[in-house]
Amino acid sequence: MASRPARTDRRESDRNGSLCRSTGAPTSPHPDTVGDALPAAQTQENPVQIRDAGVADLEALTEIHNHAVVHTTAIWNEDPVDVDDRAAWLGERSCDGFPVIVATDDTGVLGYTSFGRWRPHSGYRHTVEHSVYVREEQHGRGIGRALLTALIERARAQGVHVMVAAIESGNAASIALHEKLGFIEVGRMPQVGAKFGRWLDLTFLQLTLDERATPAPAS
């Protein structure tokens, strides 16, 4: 495992939200709970809840992230991170008004999803890129679909025009899930990534959320 770099006071600010208050960055008016999970993502004995992530979820978010880093091509990084790294990430998402949504049951956090800026330039302000991660042992319960459905609803409510998914081309299950929810494949880029000693291809899919004829001007 990679050594953990020193953390700064800024990350501690991210944990308690003071960074948002001190900078005046916008925060999204998220409710504590998005709503009940879709029926496909729950059993009568152990219902799944879909809600916004909080500080109490950081250990689980870190564990799920690191599993994807070490064992899968869902994340094209090769170095695990610590809880402070995920605290900074969660704080930055909150400050920027971007959601982080988790699926939970009485065993804990089962997966999470989020979106952020597609590109840093203002011309891309109506487009976001998202990700969805589910614990390996929870695959097949419909949790990924429930999370992505909730994220699409949140994006539409926040006025997002286009959602972009960038998926490793060999991940047929993720591509199929996105297509079932209305995403269309718009391109493939061969050998743009590398992990586990091989080249990786990248597939782009997108979902247009509204029919605006023209974009709103930059503020």
Report on the structure:
This is GNAT family N-acetyltransferase. It holds the Pfam family Acetyltransf_1. Residues 1-15 have a biased composition (Basic and acidic residues). Strands 1-2-3-4-5-6-8-7 form an eight-stranded mixed beta sheet, sandwiched between helices. The model is unreliable at 1-19 and 21-43 (pLDDT under 50). The chain is of the alpha+beta class. The protein has one domain (31-208): 3-Layer(aba) Sandwich (Aminopeptidase). It is built from six helices and eight strands; from the N terminus they run ααββααβββαβαββ. The termini are far apart. 30% of the residues lie in helices and 28% in strands.
Brief synopsis:
The chain is built from 6 helices and 8 strands, in the order ααββααβββαβαββ. With 219 residues, it is an alpha+beta fold. Mean pLDDT is 85; it is low at 1-19 and 21-43.
Mean pLDDT comes to 85
- How does the major sheet shape up? 8 strands, mixed
CATH topology (fold) name: Aminopeptidase
Number of domains in the coordinates?
1
Strand content: 25-35%
Number-wise, the strands total 8
Poorly predicted segments: 1-19, 21-43
Q: Number of helix segments? A: 6
The outline comes out as globular
> What's the CATH C level?
Alpha Beta
Radius of gyration: 17 Å
Name the CATH superfamily assignment: Gcn5-related N-acetyltransferase (GNAT)
Q: Which strand order spans the largest sheet, edge to edge or round the barrel?
A: 1-2-3-4-5-6-8-7
User: In CATH terms, what is the architecture?
Assistant: 3-Layer(aba) Sandwich
What gap, in angstroms, lies between the N and C termini? Answer: 44 Å
Name the helicity range.
Answer: 25-40%
What class would the helix/strand composition place it in? alpha+beta
